[in-house]
Sequence to fold (614 residues):
Amino acid sequence: MRITTKMMQNRSLNNLNTNKTLQEKLTTQLSTMKKITRPSDDPVIAIRSLKLNSTLNKIDQYYEKNSNDAQSWLELTESAIKTTNSILEDMSGYITQCAQGSLTAEDRAAILQNLANYQSEIYSTGNATSAGRNIFTGYRTDTPLTFLKDKTERYSITEQRDNSYIDTITHTVIGDMANINAGNFNTASYSAYTEYQVKNYDVARIRLAYNNLDIDTDNTQNANKIKLSYFTDVNTDAAHGTAKGASISTTSYSIFMNQDASGNMKITATAKDGTETDLTLTPGGATIPLGNNTKISMDAKGKITITETGNPPQTTTLQTKTETDAAGNKTYTFADRMETSLTITSFSKTASDDAYASVYGDANANNITYVAETGELLLGKNVQNKLAALSINNEIRISYDKSEWKTDDLDPVHYFYTERYTDTRDADDPLIYNEEKLTAPKGIGSNQTIRVNTTADEIYTHNMGRDVGEVKALLEEYDSLEKAYDTVNSLIQSGKYEGTDLDTLNKQLDALDKARALSKATLQERCEGLQTIFKGYTNQATLTRTDVGSRESRLKLIQNRLSAQQTNFQELVSDNEDADVTELAIQLKSVELTYEAALSSISYVMKTSLLNFI
Fold:
């Protein structure tokens, strides 16, 4: 093969270009400090780089953003709980002072003022935020814990309780004695007061989360405004002889229910004395008497209703489901719980003596009275005994509407099943909030979350404010009786009155003396009980704060692990992508020397032509 001079020149130029390309590549790597500038430079490095950087970006998000956000949230939560704990301890101190009994009028006024301030402040602390998000409201970070201003909006609320919420309070009957003065002591309304009219009522109650519910001034319109009921289990796998079915227990009967051969509901009711009564229910059929105090029926939708007029009167409902096959055969299935409703017998706007008297004594043992001013359901003895006999696992449910809200009222959507009727929604399409505890987990690592929020019901309870409100009311009552006693005593000491007027004043003084003694004893007793209760609030706050601290400790461990992972993946990314500067400098120098030598040799070849060989 003949090699010409031109061929030698072309091959030399090609080699020179290849050397220059390598030099340019090494220069680029040295300037960018990277092995590749485009995927085609090295596909293996490029693919590995994508995977490593994707993982590193996730770790950066978790470590530098999510975990810091979680840490800030937890620190703010702990700070708010610490403030709450301090407020609770101060409130407990004032309540302890009230329990001592040796308070001057100035002391009582100071305690009243401080308790009022703390009552507002404790819930305001629960409105703490982090970057505009409310800390204690679960997923609803855009909704504060309390109402920030007065508002009118209808909320339908269902409180789900148990019989541990039933307690007994003492009400002192004082009438209007606290308003006796020189101008009215001898009028018909006040002159009849004697110490024999002053007495205490010990009354059982369920204190609701809110007072001043939506009730009518006309009691006849309040029949369905508040619903009180309790739930008991249904044995859906019961047997009576050879028959299988469901069984329930009422006040007077044990009732077995099953399906007869014709597909009707067969009832076997066994009285307390063992007497059995058999009957058949048909959907939509007539109400059937069962003894003197009980009636039973079944509506067209399969709901069985048992009405009892005993002590106390109550109505029990059990839902059944009827399925009919192609041949017309019916099959009944039973709900696993039945609901028993109790009737609210009277409604009172104020905490009057008549309201508490309405459930006191044997004659009123079946009564239930709602007091709007205090938000209490007062229970007659029979009602109390019925509810107290329930298991702690039996749910007591109270449903009601409330439309008038005050600043610092706790928003019910954070605590209870709530239907909210806003101006922008149809009356039959409310916003619905469920009663389940809401917890918002924070993603802080791959496939790992940590709960950063503390929900309101873990620390801020309705009872905190309600208990303080009761102490304030008792202090105000006692203070007003003290002032009335001083007024009447000063009238007697003035020497201006004699005869019938003086006798009236002396009787009123005795009545006021007894009233203030009973009121003081009630205040002391209530405050002594609240010392333990507030200790429980403080302990709960401390426990919640400890839980937050444990989550902070866990978060620190996770942050340490994420930091180590971040460092590890940064090294892997660097090893995969970053060029070795020393090696590049050596290679580049070598290529430059080779290039210069090539230029020298190629210059000789380029000067040579065919003429040089002639």
